[in-house]
Amino acid sequence: MLRALLTLAIGLGSIATAQAGEPIVYTLSFPDAQNSYADVEARIPVEGRTELEVMMAVWTPGSYLIREYARHVEQVAATSDSGQPLNLVKTRKNRWRISALGAASAVVLRYKVYGREMSVRTNWVERDFALINGAPTFMTLADDGGPRSHIVEVRRPEGWAAVHTALPRADGGGDRFVAADFDTLVDSPMLLGSPRTAEFEVGGKAHLLVDDGGGDVWNTEQAAADVRRIIETQQAFWGTVPYDRYTILNVIHESRGGLEHLASTVVMASRWHQRLRPRYLQWLRLVSHEYFHTWNVKRLRPVELGPFDYERENHSRSLWIAEGITSYYDALLLHRAGLSTVDEYLDMLSDRLRAVARTPGRAIRSLELASFDAWIRYYRKDENWSNTDVSYYDKGAAVAWLLDARIRAATNGKKSLDDAMRTAYQRFSGERGFRTEAFYALASEVAGSDLGPWFAHHAASTDPLDYAPALRWLGLRLAPARDTKAGWLGVRSADRGGRLIVREVVRDGPAWQGGVNPDDEIIAIEGYRVTAGGLGERLEQYRPGTRIELLIARRERMSTLAVVLGEPPQEPTIEFDPQADARAIARRTAWLGTPAAGAQKSNK
Ligand SMILES: [Zn+2]
Predict the structure, then answer these.
(1) Which fold, 319-475+577-596?
(2) Residue 259 CA to ligand 1 centre (angstroms)
(3) For residues 511 and 505, what is the distance between their CA atoms, to the nearest angstrom?
(4) How many angstroms does the Cα of residue 158 sit away from the middle of ligand 1?
């Protein structure tokens, strides 16, 4: 298997001078799992060098933030393959140099990794199980020229039944896995423990759901049956399946999040959420989202996202295409799979529009700039984030919906964003990657008209989005605004020990105009005490336009502020338009899709 991989790598790179090196072989063991440690040994071929430098990634693909994984690495030491201690010096925050290698044919590097952050992009190690991600775990040769396979041998603690990962097992079986290169290693998280599993075939490919932590609360069979429908629907959507085997590592340990990989995903869940319809729907949607990424972003990707530079930021203006379009389809395809009702779907779409409406920063930062700045902003939200930024997930999904409707209208229903995505996949997937403008040009091509100005408006500018054309085309409308009698203050607040603390002040809202700041404690309104839980009800006492006096404490000093309450911003809710004519209804039906025959068998 290994030899075949190396031969293939050299064959593909026949023009390049790069030679495939000997593999780096890791041994991963857990003698101190109960204290959250994994032990790593890396056997690195010397290949005639007099010194070599190793590096630890500072981020992991799919999660655009410098995370400094090296901070969880300790007790780094190196010996020769014959056991002689070697000189090792730390040269950068994430690099070590091993020198005076003498006659060593391999360097044996040993270190410990601390893993106690329950997220899809970090490590978690405890007595009964471990989630191991590549980037925070495996050091590799820095500035390594050619292709090089990376082998991981796992020494499972007694009592851990299995290792689950998308990596293929090396010849000879056992827990020895082969990654064709470092990218593949980083892209193949491992779940070690004793999870429940469900295996099923879709489109001739094997799929494995790995449920760890669900106990007797989470129903694996139910989850697998629903996931299967998601997979069927999305395979039919794309018309091509780019893997042999796909693994869903479902970490049911009361955390959240998901991360896409080439042939697997890690999703996190609460065991209780399967029994609560809206929460379970969120989990299904998360699976749908990460699975859609198998095509959109893992293979159809912005050109900036690969080959990755693991030691610095990789900026892209197209994250909104990767994440926004995926966020549009995660819910739509869940509905087409027959897993959500129309009302549930429209509510999910409306949620994206409402999130945009609640974000004044939409007037400050365009989708493209929000994408580009993800590294310094999206994953580092502070009290002023909503005032200065917009989510490329939420606005991206809203714009994807508008784009879908635009293409449908421009082609009189003959084409849609579905076609654009499939064509983009055919044209750009694989080694190439797309430039932002190339994606826009392709959408124009599918629409049969120049969408350049449309993208300039929707993706590159901060101009307000107009939902009317999409609503009209699809036989939808915004629900009539509800008459509000309560005054709006324009703060987001928190309960700190019963005290009402301002967390965020909405840009240009009443509190903003009145000089209320984040971290102010609101003590009283018009001379009457107000507590953390009572703000909403108290504001119902006052009509919009009423001037009220707030007693606040700011760093222990009392003062009063005058605020004129406003009208709350309209939060759009999409619904069927009762006035829609037969043609609009037909277009709406085509858009929503009908569940495939197999998916109509309800499992309720
Ligand atoms: Zn995503």
Answers:
(1) Neutral Protease; domain 2 (1.10.390)
(2) 7
(3) 7
(4) 35
Q: What CATH number does domain 491-564 carry, 2.60.40.10, 2.60.200.20, 1.10.3720.10, 2.30.42.10?
A: 2.30.42.10
Return the closest-CA partner of residue 291 out of 340, 346, 247, 240: 247
143 neighbors 53 (Cβ within 8 angstroms): yes
pLDDT in tens, 21-73: 899 999 999 999 999 999 999 999 999 999 999 999 999 999 999 999 999 99
* Domain topology for 2-193: Immunoglobulin-like (2.60.40)
CA of 292 to the centre of ligand 1 (A): 8
**How many whole angstroms from its chain centre is CA 82?**
44
The DSSP string of 71-103 is GGEEEEEEEETTS-B-EEEEEETTEEEEE--TT
Q: Which residues contact 429 (CB under 8 A, 6 or more apart)?
A: 242, 295, 299, 300, 301
Q: What is the CA(293)–ligand 1 centre distance, in A?
A: 7
The CATH number given to 199-275 is 3.30.2010
Encode pLDDT of 352-379 as tens digits. 999 999 999 999 999 999 999 999 999 9
User: Is the torsion defined by CA of 358, 364, 370, 374 positive or negative?
Assistant: negative
Residues with CB under 5 A from ligand 1 (ion): 323
